[in-house]
Amino acid sequence: MLDNVDPFFVDQIDQAIIVLKIHQQVPDWELASHQHVKSQLMMTVNGLITVETPSGIWVVPAQHALWIPSNVPHKVSSYGVSSGYVAFIDSQLDHLLEPNCTMLQVTNLLNALLERVETLSDKVLSEKDFRLQQCLLDEIQSVVKPTFYLPIPQDLRLVKLTRHLLKHPEQNQSLAEWAKLCCMSERSLTRTFHQTTGMSINQWRRKLHVVLALQWLTEGNSVHQVAMKLGYDSDSSFIVMFKKIMQLSPRNYMQQT
Asked: Cβ contacts of residue 222 below 8 Å, gap of 6+?
């Protein structure tokens, strides 16, 4: 999954900052729960990655990144074909950054810096290289935290449901069918899901649709293609849903990014 280096041994590499590529050849890959002495920034260029931590499960769509502090156990899963970068940062430097897991919006500069610093992983660093690494740290500090966040419950029964929806976002089954999948009553499912996420299943599905729509629109899909992938009857019904959540139509939103 990671280019040339086993992620479980990256802490042994004597560099303050190491950036590795995430391969995109293998779909639906998974890394078992583990942790690193180094902190890390996991950035998705294409695809959709989820990261499960003791504080919850984070959804990382394309052009977003998740900051994971040192020694935080985490499990990583890819849905479909994903690619991106992981920056491992020595704990002597990470006091400058966030102390908790945090979602970040990826800028063009951050993307370019990760791509450039990745080429330094197997060479003796020059003064110019160290300045590039410092620029990367500065940009991580300055990027905007996205206001759009999709919470995923830790209840194992509800995790089964949300993972099913991640793999099959086009499905719109009845509450009775969702309850059967979770081995819960409809009333218990409705109450528990709202208590743990702050929203209903249908509200959660609509937010998931926006996450996926942003990914696919960024990759060049048309509004019509996205609407069909998400199971909408028409482009207009998808646009209405998107606008209710993002306050802008898909086209206008993409023009602002």
From this structure: none
148/129 Cα distance (integer angstroms):
34
Cβ pair 84, 41 in contact under 8 A: no
The answer to whether the CB of 193 falls within 8 A of the CB of 222 is: no
DSSP 142-160: HSPPPS----B---HHHHH
Question: By the 8 A CB rule, do 17 and 136 touch?
Answer: yes
How many other C-beta atoms can be found within 10 angstroms of the C-beta atom of residue 139?
Answer: 18
pLDDT in tens, 149-199: 677 787 889 989 998 998 899 998 999 999 999 999 999 999 999 998 888
235 in Cβ contact with 224 (< 8 Å): yes
Summarize pLDDT for 204-244 with one digit per residue, the tens.
999 899 988 887 887 789 999 999 999 999 999 999 999 99
What are the CA-CA distances from residue 89 to residues 13, 51, 97 (Å)? 11, 18, 10
Reduce the DSSP state of residue 48 to 3 states and report it: strand
Query: Parallel, antiparallel, or unpaired: how do β-strands 64-68 and 102-105 relate?
Result: antiparallel
- Rounded to whole angstroms, how far apart are CA atoms 86 and 219? 20
Could you count the other beta carbons within 10 Å of the beta carbon of residue 55? Answer: 11
